[in-house]
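C-alpha cells in:
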C-alpha cells in the first residue's frame, strides 16, 4: 500500500528543516509555513528524512485507502 504524507500547518513553526532536507517537495510560504509542492518522484526515505528533521513533528505519514 502506498503512503501519503501531510503537514499539520497549524503546528508548523516555520523552521525550514523540511525544505532544507527535501527542497523538491517542501516550500516555505510567504507566511513562513511549510507546504507540500510536489509529492511525486521522491522516495519514502527522502520524506522520512524530512519527517525526522522536523523539530515539532508536524509532518505525518498517512496510509492511502
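Residues out:
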Amino acid at each position: 500500500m502506498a503512503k501519503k504524507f501531510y503537514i499539520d500547518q497549524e503546528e508548523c513553526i516555520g523552521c525550514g528543516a523540511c525544505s532544507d532536507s527535501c527542497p523538491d517537495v517542501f516550500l516555505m510560504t510567504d507566511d513562513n509555513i511549510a507546504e507540500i509542492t510536489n509529492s511525486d518522484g521522491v522516495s519514502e526515505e527522502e520524506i522520512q528524512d524530512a519527517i525526522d528533521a522536523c523539530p515539532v513533528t508536524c509532518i505525518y505519514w498517512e496510509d492511502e485507502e
